Amino acid sequence: xxxxxxxxxxxxxxxxxxxPDTRLRQVMVETADAGxxxxxxxxxxxxxxxxxxxxxxxxxxxxAEPRLAEIKRHPDDLAAEGRTDLALGxxxxxxxxxxxxxxxxxxxxxxxxxxxxxxALRSRLTPHGGAVAELTPPxxxxxxxxxxxxxxxxxxxxxxxxxxxxxxxxxxxxxxxxIAYMAMFGMMFGDVGHGMAxxxxxxxxxxxxxxxxxxxAPAAPFLVGAGIASIGFGFLYGEAFGPTGLVPTVWLRPLxxxxxxxxxxxxxxxxxxxxxxxxxxVNRWREGGLPVALYAASGIGGSLLFAGxxxxxxxxxxxxxWLWQAGVVIAAGGAVLVFVGLIVNAGKxxxxxxxxxxxxxxxxxxxxxxxxxxxxxxxxxxxxxxxTGVVWDGTVSLWNRASIVGFAAAVLxxxxxxxxxxxxxxxxxxxxxxxxxxxEMFSRLFAREGxxxxxxxxxxxxxxxx
Length: 466
Prior knowledge:
By secondary structure, this protein is of the alpha+beta class. It has 2 domains: about 5-145 and about 455-460, no CATH class; about 155-445, no CATH class. The protein is about 60% helix and about 5% strand. It has helices spanning about 5, 25-35, 60-65, 75-80, 85-100, 120-125, 150-155, 160, 175-190, 190-205, 220-235, 260-295, 300-315, 320-345, 350-375, 375-400, 405-445, and strands at about 10-20, 35-40, 70, 100, 105-115, 130-135, 460.
């Protein structure tokens, strides 16, 4: 699948399913069986079955999956035969037909459909007398969001969907969010041995389907990816079940150079925020055009403010006059754009200006706190290194006693200590990486929340003579 198709939602078409009243049921049965069309409210909760008069109730109805019979039968007769599934489906269909737009001899049901599915649904309905007509979307109405089916992207998407549904006009940040999450986790959990354990655990979840570990199968891509990132940082730190010397130190030992590690966390976080600002500016442009993108705090104005501030700090830290001077100009330009946008949103008068001033101060304060928040990448990386270091020092001390008791105690301490470090470090790394994505990145990417595409689908039970 081409990369561009994974970065944007599926293109939706506004359509009307049209059927003559004499063939209405057949057309709607085929539409329900296709499972690609989402009728508008009041046709249901965006694709869900509609309970109503004639709908079965009770435990059986709660557990049954609604289905449709090809030939119409009364819901009461179906319920009497124990066909709760068909009774639910028939009741759902009747409610939808009652709520449809009847125009004399025809009935019209409007809704949303993937543009790629228009011709397929049209071809399916034509033999039954139905038609699919494309309509102009109503102004101000945002289409539902659907994503292209791709195994890797689908497995990673819960990281974003648990926060919000990507709005229809926004870019899908799934891959960026997943890579950023794994990198941040790896920096906080940098250990070759522990990373390999995560990879093994992730692989095991896809094999042991009937075991408790198998329940973690949906998280397998994150476990494997986070494990690989942890292995990479483990080599950078020279950590493998602690400072055991099993692997070389490619970059630095966290406990020897904590200041450098903290600076790396700030730089890494700044890079992630820079990419977030670019994606957010593109989203604002796609949502409202140049004016919205230019003056939004998460658009071009905010991006310039962030870039200028970064250049200012970098120039001062590196004693580079032209860099910090350029940073002042860029940051000032971005601040003006953001402030103008805040004033416009606040309205008119002195109260609007006062509100804009407060919001501008909040924007600046939030920008600084966002960057500083990424120091936790180094802080928790240091914590993990401290725990494994203490375990290793204790293990060496017991082993050097050169006794059977000492050897046994050393092995026990090494195993139990690494298990505790692994559990605590993995839990903290997972939570903190998610927290950074939600509060520092996603809150800037999404200015609104989309609505997921939920097509109406009722499987049809065909008769043997059809």
